[in-house]
Write a structure and sequence with these properties.
single chain, 3 helices, seven-stranded antiparallel β-sheet
Length: 135
Amino acid sequence: MATPFTTTLDRLIACFQAAFEHSAVVRREERPSMALIEMSGDYGAYQVRLKEIRRADGVRRYAYYVLDRSAVVVGFDNASDPRALRLKYGKNYVHHRLELIPHRHARNKGAIDLSDEMDGESFVSWVKENLPRTQ
């Protein structure tokens, strides 16, 4: 049964499958109130992971990661990460601890910086533009 999210998810799946080898939809759930999509694929020697949860009220949670074996090369998400909250709010971060903060993780999550909001198609473009397709 089609939901308000069907077209958006279909477009994201097509974009992901066109960009990455061995791409697979690991999980897809749709209800009128929410949708979840989880995908994996390969970009040369890298493994790419994408997960989004969209709610009917417009709230969207995401986690997009590129791995080299099991090590994080780069990750973008909007979780309420305490380190990201500290970067944005300083000492007052505890008052915002449930807020979704777009941020980027560098190698092995050793560094973190604030980023702009990202969607799945922008993540696919970022990977193609910024990472070499290694074998």
